[in-house]
Records
---
Amino acid sequence: SSLDSSEPVVQVVRDVPAGAQITPDMLRTVAADVDATVNLIGADELPTLIGQYAKVRLVSGSLVVPAAIQSGPLLSPGNAVVAIEVKAAELPVGLRERVPVRLVVPASTSDESPTATSIDGRVVGLPFASDSGLGTQSVSIEVAAADAATVAAADAVRVVLMVPSEDPANRTEEVTE
């Protein structure tokens, strides 16, 4: 098909981290020549985006798709976000924002029972190189608030990528009349 007419759509003006609440200065409308099958947010919907949340990192200059925005905050009630440092070579391939992970915290040598602790979580911040100089990367993980201290106090944490499940932010509640 040919692209011969532009449509007004929503564009990101500056980088928006995952979880940030959308403000008017983050977005603008632009005319774009795109195929009708591309699922973009039309300019007429821009006002409805203000106050919503970025589900993933929105890169400056990109066009906004509905799957990148959610109505609720990134962090669920009763949860906390913990930053962990992991050796870059120990991060699983495919790690991205909002994927479920299992954190494995080795037992402390002072523990009477040498059993590792497993804590389920979800990635909310992509890995980035740490300034520690140890070849580690920092990853932000959402865990239950009760588990946050265990993860934060751990000397070493292994990250296991789990099978993706339904993202609670994508759930649509049934409307009953």
---
Amino acid sequence: IISDNIKKIMRFVGYNVIADTHLGDWGTQFGKLIVAYSRWLDKENFDKDPIAELERLYIKFGDEAEKDPDLDELARIELKKVQDGDEANLALWKKFVEITLSECKKIYEYLGINFDTYYGESFYHKLMPKVIDELVEKGLAVESEGALVVFFDEKENLHPCIVRKKDGAFLYATSDLATIKFKYENYKMNKALYVTDDRQAVYFKQIFNISQRAGGERGRPRGGRR
């Protein structure tokens, strides 16, 4: 609602605005859902109300993982399979995303909100290896305990940022950096406004810092998630 109003105001005063909602469609939550779907699916409930059944399965996974921490590692393995193109896991992932987005769009329509694009993390997946290569080539990302990590100057007061896990999987940071690169190169934008939860403020300081160091002034997002 906040970002939609910002979009309308900026268009009113003459900006050419492209509104995008950055869907979290590529994270560990999908690994958790795949594990839960394979173990505890109620097929009748899923056919009747798929979004409610997915929500139940996600909560079920959380409850079971408290008793069996190995489930979290299994979820990471299943997510990595999605990222590596495993057909069975990709099919489930697509099903989960379609169901979720359909439900989200019902809410957007009810509120009178619309976006020009619905690019999620998965849209940028093909760009992420190149982003990693560039960070390594420029000496920004270095190996630490098997993962690739970007460290910051002490004066920045920022924790190190992992951009690729030790199993080769990407993270939110990787997709956000790929997003900045894609939008700059394709939209030739001069201003990026991020509308997000304030609890992500430190995280985005990390992302904007890395982007700026990787691309100079072209990598400096101005303003303030999608």
